[in-house]
Amino acid sequence: MEIKGTAVKTIPDFVKEKYSSRYAEWVRSLPEKSQEIATSVKSSAWYSMTDGGIELTKKVGEIFYDGDFKKGAVELGKYSADVALHGIYKLYVKFSSPGHIISRASRVFSAYYNPSKMEVAEHRAKSVKLIMTAFDQPSDVIEYRIVGWIERALEISGCSGIVVEISESFTKGNERTVFDCSWN
After folding, report:
1. Which residues does 134 contact at the CB level (< 8 Å), separation at least 6?
2. Rounded distance between C-alpha atoms, residue 179 and residue 53, angstroms
3. SS3 assignment, position 35
4. What DSSP designation does 22 have?
5. Burial class (CB in 10 A: 0-12, 13-18, 19+), 47
6. What is the structure's pLDDT at 89?
7. Which of 24, 74, 157, 158 has a Cα-to-Cα distance from 148 of 20 to 30 A?
8. Which phi-psi region, left, alpha or beta, contains residue 61 (left: φ > 0; alpha: ψ -120 to 50)?
9. What does the pLDDT average to over 164-174?
10. Of the candidates 91, 83, 100, 110, which has an alpha carbon nearest to the alpha carbon of residue 12?
């Protein structure tokens, strides 16, 4: 399975911005292949999910969040949403309905993870249920990164009281991963 360089690039950028004095420590902690990717990532390239996504994210959790890879993944997801939804896109997000934004995000999901598929199963006034039906390399690290991305996208669109839960997961033996998203 592969991850797009655009999604990978936000990881070292996050570390440089939030923990600049410890960037070199973070890079040294990575496996060799991951080090190479982190220090020379190209936005247009595709990388191994393990080397370019999972390992980099796990080390963020280990080093900067007291070993809590979920917290690190969520924070990276939020940062990634900030990067993706800036400029004209930020205005689009602010003036569109939250459900519409999350529905659109599900359609571009496969542009970042290959092969993958996500669809909207339910869309209500203050909630959306997203279902990941294809993801060749199940990873709770990536699932929590997606949780963070959704949370931040909803925040940018003006929502409060945001709850994003994973009610089913490939990583727990389910046939799909379900993201239940709600807001006030």
Report:
1. 115, 116, 117
2. 20
3. helix
4. G
5. buried
6. 63
7. 24
8. alpha
9. 97
10. 83
Write down the H helix ranges in the chain.
5-18, 23-29, 32-40, 49, 55-64, 69-84, 88-95, 98-108, 140-156
Distance CA 141, CA 73 (A): 6
Residue 127: the pLDDT is 95
- Distance, in Å, from the CA atom of 133 to the CA atom of 120, rounded to the nearest integer, reads 11
The yes-or-no verdict on residue 96 having pLDDT over 80 is no
What six digits make up the tokens of 148?
A: 């963070």
- CA–CA gap between residue 69 and residue 14 (Å, rounded): 15
Length of the chain (residues): 184
With 0-12 / 13-18 / 19 or more C-beta atoms within 10 angstroms meaning exposed / middle / buried, residue 125 is: exposed
Distance CA 132, CA 149 (A): 15
- Which strand ranges, in their side-by-side order, compose the sheet holding 177-182? 116-124, 127-135, 177-182, 163-168
Q: What is the Cα–Cα distance from 149 to 30, expressed in whole angstroms?
A: 23
Phi and psi at residue 156, to the nearest 5°? -60, -35
Is the pLDDT score of 98 beyond 90? no
Q: Closest Cα partner for 79 from 141, 15, 126?
A: 15
